[in-house]
Design brief:
The protein is mainly alpha-helical and 191 residues long. It has a domain of 130 residues: Tetracycline Repressor, domain 2. It is 71% helix and 0% strand.
């Protein structure tokens, strides 16, 4: 008869994701994971597979978490420009995660060049963000809030690239005036 799990799978996955986020994939050992997750090594392997499989599940969880956070914060906003600004502001919010940046960007820098599965997950995540910008821009053009002189595809690529740069910059500065000025300049492009 199978033993009942003595832990919450979602909670231990969250802990693994946070450890990978803080330390990166290469610097996180299986022992680090066992200790941080608070489960036995055998349970980790039985539930999640190897370290790479656990990491991929953590990336998936991270993507869901970010999507949910963005949706909750931009849904009540009626203005497309304000919604786009809000996406950028989320990146610079003061919290413990600001110190470790964006897990997807960290992963792109650390692993995408030598791990095809990770590269695919990063590209998928980046494409979702770019598509969100594209949909917002199209909606803004249809409503007349954003000039139709802009090509929404090119502009969504520009905005996404700017967002990635901001995600990197928050790891190196706590100068909110500087970060807000960058957001102002970026968003001014869609005026």
């Amino acid at each position: 008869m199978a033993r009942n799990r003595e832990y919450d799978e979602n909670e231990v996955l969250r802990k693994a994701m946070e450890l990978f986020w803080k330390q990166g994939y290469e610097k996180t050992s299986m022992q680090d994971l066992v200790e941080h997750m608070g489960i036995h090594r055998r349970s980790l392997y039985d539930t999640f597979g190897d370290k790479h499989a656990l990491f991929m599940r953590g990336l998936e969880r991270y993507g869901e978490m970010v999507k949910s956070k963005i949706e909750k914060q931009i849904q009540p906003i009626g203005s497309v420009k304000q919604a786009i600004r809000r996406i950028f502001e989320i990146v610079i919010q003061q919290d413990e995660q600001q110190l470790i940046g964006c897990l997807m960007v960290n992963t792109a820098v650390e692993m995408a060049m030598h791990d095809e599965e990770v590269a695919e997950k990063v590209v998928e995540s980046f494409s979702k963000t770019e598509n969100l910008f594209y949909e917002l821009l199209q909606h803004g053009q249809q409503s007349g809030e954003i000039s139709s002189q802009h090509d929404p595809k090119s502009l969504s690529q520009f905005l996404h690239n700017s967002l990635l740069g901001l995600r990197v910059l928050v790891k190196t500065t706590d100068d909110n005036k500087k970060l807000e000025s960058i957001i102002d300049m970026t968003v001014s492009v869609i005026d």
